[in-house]
Amino acid sequence: MNATLLLRERLILTETAFADIVIWRVPSSVRGSRHEFKYSLALIGDGVCVLRYDNEAGKGDHKHLAEQEVPYRFVDLERLRADFWNDVEAWLAQRSNG
Length: 98
Prior knowledge:
Blueprint: E1 4-12, E2 17-25, E3 37-45, E4 48-54, E5 62-65, E6 68-71, H1 77-96
Antiparallel strand pairs: 1-2, 2-3, 3-4, 4-5, 5-6
């Protein structure tokens, strides 16, 4: 079985920010993760990645908040997407409040 692309989308959020989301179902877990998905959900603001959830091989599930990398507890795809969008909304709100 090969990897299957489940979702690939780029969503324009503001004039200077967009979300780039890619999720694959993989035949075996990515090294460091315990599920059948490979993913990258990124928020780009002013040309810089300001938020990213991913599970790069060897690091397992984690997220990047600006320059900081913190572990992320993957539950399922629904929770992953909800957590990402909650962080995106918080970032957008913070920017709009100056």
